[in-house]
Amino acid sequence: MSRRWYRHAAKVVFFGWDPGEQGFYVNVVDLCSECRGTGEVGDTEEVCPGCGGEGIQLSKMNPSARRGGLSLDDLSAEFARQELPLLDYMRADLEADREANSATALQEYELS
Ligand SMILES: [Zn+2]
Hints:
- By secondary structure, the chain is α+β, with helices and mostly antiparallel strands.
- It has one domain.
- The protein is built from two helices and five strands; from the N terminus they run ββββααβ.
- The protein has helices at about 70-80, 90-100; strands spanning about 5-10, 10-20, 25-30, 65-70, 105-110.
- A hairpin with a 2-residue loop joins strand 1 (about 5-10) and strand 2.
- The protein is elongated, with a radius of gyration of 15 Å.
- The model has no long low-confidence stretch (mean pLDDT about 90).
- The structure holds zinc ion (ZN).
- Zinc ion binds near residues 35, 39, 51 and 55.
């Protein structure tokens, strides 16, 4: 599946196209509260023990938080319901993923 994501407040929003499901998915995960998403302890290079350096709370990454098999309109509605931005260029990228049936796209967005 294509993997696209951005950080928003204390969350990471993962979304993309899943060729297996022939639909879009979204998964919202909380940032690690110990390192605030950096994956490191303070200003050191030490790996954060709370998340193993991932920067997100893996224990909370349960399958029920994931929504899949969505149309682009469904996905937009889900983002709206969770008050998350889904910008025009992200929608364009997602449409391109669907067109290409992409299983490999990988991109992090920076929200300003
Ligand atoms: Zn951490």
